[in-house]
Design goal:
10 strands; seven-stranded parallel sheet
């Protein structure tokens, strides 16, 4: 019926499962489903922490840039979410950032500020951006990782466990700033790395693949006909596409797509829920 279903139970790792594809009729419905999913994940996590006796929960959500996440975040900043979302408890982080000043149109930080931070009552201390004012991308990556290590302390498994990570899929199958064929510049055990790629191919700072795979919940968004081939490849587990390698070992991954982005995947017999 095109409606996005509730959050699923955790599963162990493996290839991305095609039955985790949820198809929405339009980009507008996709954005609404994405906002609702973020809200649902946060609500469930707060309830779980309350049952465990934690009265001051700290929920960590990492957000990607791009037009599809922008629309979802704009909806999240509006009613009915604006009054019901626990803004004081949720801390927002960047999945990746282009090495440009924060006021530039290419800046993901600028997008997040325009779509969410300037619209919703997010406490300023609850947003943790990549600092692009430092001399080099390597300096920014180091500082961002230091901040994360301060925040997450000593995580089980050696990597921070975000409660949710919102990711996009590029038409080339990239996600975050992890691009097909690009050399892996991350040192073993690192949480943040410098990368180059995309259009334009500017230096970037990005969370590493192990960090994405350590998340409790990963939500991929795909919108538009130009994403159809990439989404089909990711769902089929093409190892050459970075997005297909994001498989949480102790969490879940779901794919939310509009009808155009899901067209080729649906032809292969992958149904929607």
């Amino acid at each position: 019926d095109g409606r996005e279903r509730p959050v699923e139970d955790p599963v162990t790792g493996g290839a991305p499962s095609p039955d985790r594809l949820f198809v929405l009729p339009s980009p507008e419905e996709l954005a609404r489903a994405a906002a609702g999913r973020i809200w649902g994940i946060v609500r469930e996590r707060i309830a779980a922490l309350a049952r465990a006796g934690k009265e001051a929960p700290r929920i960590r959500v990492a957000l990607s840039g791009g037009e599809t996440p922008r629309h979802a975040l704009e909806i999240l900043s509006q009613e009915p979410y604006r009054v019901s979302f626990p803004w004081e408890a949720v801390h927002f982080y960047q999945v990746d950032e282009r090495w440009v000043p924060p006021g530039e149109p290419l800046s993901n930080r600028r997008m997040l500020r325009e779509a969410l931070l300037s619209r919703a009552p997010v406490p300023p201390s609850n947003f943790h951006p990549v600092d692009t004012s430092r001399p080099r991308p390597e300096d920014g990556a180091k500082r961002y990782e230091e901040m994360l290590r301060d925040d997450f302390r000593a995580p089980v498994g050696g990597y921070p466990r975000f409660d949710a990570i919102l990711l996009g899929i590029g038409r080339d199958g990239h996600t975050a700033s992890l691009f097909p064929g690009a050399p892996d510049t991350a040192t073993p055990g690192s949480w943040v790395a410098v990368a180059t790629g995309g259009d334009p191919p500017v230096p970037r700072v990005t969370l590493t693949l192990p960090v994405l795979c350590a998340a409790a919940r990963v939500v991929f968004l795909a919108s538009g006909r130009e994403k159809a081939e990439a989404l089909r490849g990711v769902l089929s587990g093409d190892p050459g596409l970075p997005a297909s390698r994001v498989v949480p070992a102790r969490g879940t991954v779901v794919f939310l797509a509009d009808a155009q982005a899901a067209a080729l995947a649906m032809r292969k017999g992958r149904g929607s829920r």
